[in-house]
Design goal:
single chain, about 1100 residues, Beta-Lactamase, 7 domains, five-stranded antiparallel beta sheet, 40 strands
Length: about 1100
């Protein structure tokens, strides 16, 4: 094709293009490299009224100032790079104003070889208007979403949370990070999951119940409204859930069930109404709930700002107008206020209104505000009732000891409006005088004639100013001077009331006299100071001689003076150890007095936990007796030893178990333990009242108590748990508590184990007393050395039971010098084995704290074999508590010896009990002689006459009678009767012989003897036969026929029961006590002797039941096979 033809072809195509552009509805323009118009299409002129007159002018001049720079940068950047792209902006046209446009352009080179931009322009104002409406709608929803008084969350089709408001997070008690993305379909609450699944299927559902959060340890009663959201095709895209925390409502319903149905309905359906105020037009959009508050339906009323003012109470309209003007003028961005509005029925409701401006005019005025209305009528009534209650309280205050007053700020001065009558007794000023005071607040509350000390007055005013700035209530103590010059201390508690701007305008206070308390505090302070001085002086006085003793002893051990024998060296080493221990004790007393400075030293040693727990439980068991509480030691007897201070461990256990008992009325208190990482975790679990969750963090604070129920009396100082925590922590452990109200509490603490590592470390140390533990020798080699033991020929034997070799050696050394034979055992089980093997000690000295079986348990086992008189027991202990003494005596102990003991005290207590036992044995011999003397001569005479009569008539029966009499006399005068107990078979033989003799004399006697017991049992001698004799001679002897006697010896549940019954004359009730006390004059063998002996040995004597003229039963019991 020739050049001419090509030109014609191009021109023809250009003409066609121009005709097409003329026909296009979209505007087309052409700009040069500087942005000037080169061409505009006819549609541009038709649309915007501008044509060829703008050719050559800048295309940027009419662009909105806010968009101009952005468009210029966009244009020139694209022009340089030759890129085609799009942009949206606002352009101004005459008669139309600013119009939103969408421009699409491309860069080309014209026939003059110049770059040009070809741009199509489309009007998008309508689309932009819709986008702005959508943004406003979303903002409105977002505000409602965030400010709603209910929790809200969104859930996608997969059942996962995609968004939620802060209130929902608060209701659940979790965090937004844990909630977002949570799969709700996996919850274990079937009702909740079923409700949300129905919502995902398009149903509107409701859930109500107690929701257990899986992201937080919290159970919350809630009500959830599930609303599905559909797309244009009707498919569910997501679900909106509205969550209400019904905790308060549930509680209110339970407590106020009897209230009117209307109030109950209001609580159950409580909610806020939403309003949307177009400030420019005055139109107010409201929700159904907003109308419902005032009793209207949507069709009944049209709401704008005029109607709003019309519904308002006349006295509140000015206030509402003022608030609305602040929003309209842009002086306030948010709004809140309380006013009254007229209900449809004519009543006025109190409304709390809260709102916020969400759209603004260009000049900064408010364009649109949204907010909520909340009906607070009932709350307002409650406030009015509170005011009336306050008025009543003011009347009561006038009768209280002390002074109440109210001062108010009005007309630039403070004035006292009210003062109670107690002011005269407190200050010496009459109410009328005080009410006349005016001026500044400082002059009113701190007058110079009452607060005379100017420096004190300034200090008080400084405290007052701090309260005025930051507080609503306060309390303060200070001295005052009365009108008659007396100085008194007062305690003042006040309440501050502020106006809407936050300024204090009213002060209400109550003042009472605390002079006596202050004087007591000052006295206690002086006493505390004296105590500290006493401790310091005492420690000094004790340390000086102790240091001297230690120094002298060490010198002797190092060879000062003459060479020591082995025994002397052991004694000197024992003195050194004891002196050092006593010095450590003095230091501990001082350390403990300074416990607040965390400066106390522990005496660590291997300690058996099971034994320590058993001892603590034994000490506290008396408290559980009066409650339906079981104390359980679940610590294994084979558990590992602890490396602790033994006394501090006892103190910790005593505090925690005692605390558990205090707040447990039924169930159990259980102690258990387990090893964890070289530590022993020890727990005390109870089934008591529990501790409120909000108070758990305070239970270990000083003066706090763990039981906070108003039904439980507060007992104690509140120091126990604080001290316990301190003692645990200085051992290197920690303590914590878990509790549930009504279920009980678990206190858990940790203490270090006596590990192999510690054992190895101790082996490397030089021991202070090498001979006692050298080559793994037990103390036996020391105590029973030939030089000490074999040369002793004593009438008394003492058994020492202690796991501490030094203690045994110290005791034995003293007793040897007194000529007393000593045996020893390192444990309770070992001591029992010695006794069961035949050892017959006259006295036992028992250490209380021993592993396996503590001293109290061992003593109880002893008492199953011997009475207090047969084998006396002295407890050896370092504890001085009243409970320890009581527990020891209840276990069967005779006496206590406290460590460290004085030698003369040990000797005195041991000799006293040994001599007492000897005296009791002598008295028993005398008593048996007396009983044997009770056998009447005429009884023997009558028996011999009976034998003589039989000799003439029946020699066989005479022989049998002589044998029976011989057995009777032999059993009565047996040397065995000098012992405290004889075998049951000897008493049975005596009974059988006596019964045979009496039946020979009185053939009509019907005597039955039933024996169902071990005849090897040991019982006090001559206790049963005298009862049979008494039944014959004083019961049925004079009944010439039908005289019956039943003798029953029955072994039941390890007890021996003895009963002697007869159908004789009986005993009158008032004479029974005389018989048992020995005040009744009777012949022969009396019951009083037997009664006293049984009481002395077993704690209970004879039991007599008798009906005069009918029958008599005499019985007694030997408990728990003590006779074996």
């Amino acid at each position: 094709m020739s050049e001419e033809n090509r030109y014609e072809q191009t021109k023809k195509e250009l003409d066609n293009y121009k005709r097409m552009v003329h026909l296009m509805q979209d505007v087309m323009i052409e700009l040069d490299a500087e942005g000037r118009y080169c061409y505009v299409s006819p549609s541009y002129e038709r649309t915007y009224g501008q044509g060829k007159e703008i050719i050559g002018k800048s295309g940027f001049a009419s662009i909105h100032p806010e968009d101009r720079e952005r468009v210029e940068n966009f244009y020139f950047h694209g022009f340089q790079r030759g890129e085609a792209s799009r942009i949206e902006y606002r352009n101004h046209y005459p008669g139309k104003g600013y119009v939103w446009l969408e421009a699409r352009g491309m860069i080309f080179v014209n026939d003059e070889n110049k770059k040009r931009a070809l741009i199509t322009v489309r009007d998008i104002s309508e689309r932009k208007r819709k986008e702005e409406e959508l943004a406003r709608s979303e903002a409105k929803y977002k505000l409602i979403f965030d400010k709603a008084p209910l929790g809200i969350y969104h859930m996608n089709r997969e059942g996962r949370i995609t968004d939620c408001n802060d209130l929902f997070v608060k209701i659940i008690g979790s965090s937004r990070e844990k909630i977002m993305g949570l799969d709700l379909k996996s919850l274990k609450d079937e009702a909740y999951v079923n409700a949300l699944k129905k919502a995902l299927n398009g149903e509107i559902t409701l859930y109500e119940g107690s929701y257990a959060s899986v992201t937080a340890n919290k159970i919350t009663p809630i009500r959830v409204f599930f609303a599905p959201v559909h797309d244009a095709k009707g498919h569910v895209t997501d679900v909106v859930a509205i969550v209400e925390d019904t905790t308060v409502r549930k509680s209110t319903e339970e407590k106020l069930r009897y209230m009117e149905q209307r109030w109950q309905f209001a609580v159950e359906n409580s909610g806020d109404g939403v309003w949307d105020w177009n400030i420019e037009t005055g139109k107010v959009g409201v929700s159904d709930r907003w109308l419902e508050m005032l009793g209207y339906e949507k069709e009944e009323i049209f709401i704008d700002h005029h109607k709003l003012l019309e519904l308002a109470h006349p006295k509140d309209r000015g206030y509402i107008i003022h608030k609305m003007n602040l929003l309209e003028q842009g002086k306030k961005t948010s709004y809140d206020g309380t006013f009254r509005m007229r209900h449809k029925n004519g009543d006025y409701r109190y409304i709390l209104s809260i709102g916020k401006v969400v759209e603004w005019e260009k000049e900064g005025r408010g364009r649109r505000a949204i907010g909520i209305h909340r009906d607070i009528t009932e709350q307002q009534y409650a406030i009015d009732a509170l005011k009336e209650s306050e008025r009543s309280k003011s009347v009561l205050l006038s009768n209280l000891p002390g002074m109440a007053y109210r001062c108010h700020y009005k007309k630039d001065e403070w004035k006292i409006e009210y003062v109670s009558k107690g002011c005269f007794e407190l200050t010496g000023y009459y109410p009328s005088e005080i009410k006349s005071w005016r001026g500044s607040l400082k002059d009113i509350i701190l007058p110079t004639h009452i607060i005379a000390d100017s420096e004190q007055r300034e200090i008080l005013w400084k405290q007052w100013k701090e309260n005025l700035r930051a507080s609503h209530s306060f309390q303060i103590e200070y001295p005052i001077r009365t009108s008659w010059g007396e100085i008194r201390w007062v305690w003042e508690r006040g309440q501050l009331f502020r106006n809407r701007s936050g300024k204090v305008i009213t002060v209400e206070c109550f003042v009472t006299d605390i002079t006596e308390r202050k004087e007591a505090e000052e006295k206690n302070k002086r006493l505390d100071q004296l105590k500290d001085e006493f401790l310091a002086n005492t420690s000094h006085e004790l340390k000086t001689p102790l240091n001297g003793m230690i120094s002298l002893t060490e010198s002797l051990l190092k060879g000062a003076g003459r060479e020591l024998t082995d025994i002397q060296r052991q004694n000197m080493e024992l003195i050194l150890i004891s002196s050092k221990r006593l010095l450590a004790l003095v230091n501990d007393i001082l350390d403990f007095s300074q416990i607040k400075n965390n400066d106390i030293n522990l005496r660590l040693k291997s300690t058996d936990l099971h034994s320590a727990v058993t001892l603590a439980i034994d000490l506290l068991s008396y408290q559980a007796v009066h409650k339906n509480v079981k104390l359980i030691n679940a610590v294994s007897p084979t558990s590992s030893a602890l490396m602790v201070d033994e006394n501090r461990l006892s103190q910790i256990l005593f505090n925690l178990i005692g605390n558990a008992l205090k707040f447990t009325d039924q169930g159990s208190v259980c102690v258990y333990a387990e090893e964890k990482n070289e530590m022993m975790s020890i727990s005390i679990q109870d089934t008591g009242i529990g501790i409120p969750e909000e108070r758990i963090k305070d239970v270990f604070k000083v003066f706090e108590q763990s039981g906070f129920s108003p039904d439980i009396e507060r007992i104690g100082t509140g120091l126990g748990l604080a001290i316990t925590k301190y003692l645990v922590e200085i051992h290197g452990g920690e303590i914590k508590v878990e509790s549930m109200i009504g279920k009980g509490s678990v206190f858990t603490f940790t203490l270090p184990l006596y590990t192999q590592k510690i054992i190895n470390q101790e082996k490397k140390k030089a021991l202070d007393l090498v001979p006692l533990q050298q080559n793994n020798y037990a103390l036996t080699s020391v105590v029973k050395s030939p030089e000490i033991v074999e040369n002793i020929n004593s009438e008394f034997k003492v058994l020492i039971v202690d796991d501490e070799p030094v203690n045994i050696y110290s005791l034995a050394n003293v007793l040897f010098r007194e000529g007393i034979h000593v045996d020893h055992a390192a444990s309770g089980h070992g001591a029992l084995a010695l006794i069961d093997a035949g050892l017959e000690p006259d006295l036992c000295i028992i250490d209380v704290m021993m592993p396996g079986m503590n001293g109290y348990q061992f003593c109880r086992e002893i008492r199953k074999r011997f009475s207090e008189f047969e084998l006396p027991v002295i407890f050896l202990t370092a504890r001085y508590g009243k409970g320890d003494l009581q527990l020891g005596f209840e276990a069967g102990g005779n006496d206590f010896l406290h460590k460290p003991f004085e030698e003369f005290e040990l000797v005195a207590r041991v000799q006293t009990l040994l001599q007492l036992k000897k005296s009791v044995s002598k008295a028993m011999e005398n008593e048996m002689a007396f009983l044997q003397a009770q056998i009447k001569p005429h009884f023997l005479y009558n028996v011999l006459n009976t034998i003589a009569a039989y000799c003439e008539e029946n020699r066989k029966e005479a022989g049998e009678l002589i044998i029976a009499l011989s057995k009777y006399l032999r059993a009565s005068f047996s040397f065995n009767n000098l012992a405290e107990k004889v075998k049951l078979r000897q008493e049975i033989s005596l009974i059988n012989s006596y019964v045979f003799i009496e039946k020979s004399r009185f053939p009509w006697l019907n005597i039955q003897v039933k024996i169902e017991a071990n005849e090897s049992l040991l019982i006090p001698p001559m206790t049963i036969q005298p009862l049979v004799e008494n039944a014959i001679h004083h019961g049925i002897r004079h009944q010439m026929a039908e005289g019956r006697i039943s003798v029953i010896l029955l072994q039941k549940d390890n007890d021996l029961i003895v009963k002697v019954w007869d159908n004789g004359v009986g005993i009158e009730e008032e004479k029974v006590d005389q018989l048992l006390s020995g005040t009744m004059d009777v012949q022969g063998v009396g019951l009083a002797n037997i009664h006293r002996r049984l009481q002395r040995i077993y704690g209970s004597g004879l039991n007599i039941k008798s009906t005069p003229g009918v029958q008599t039963e005499v019985s007694f019991l030997i408990p728990a096979l003590l006779g074996i």
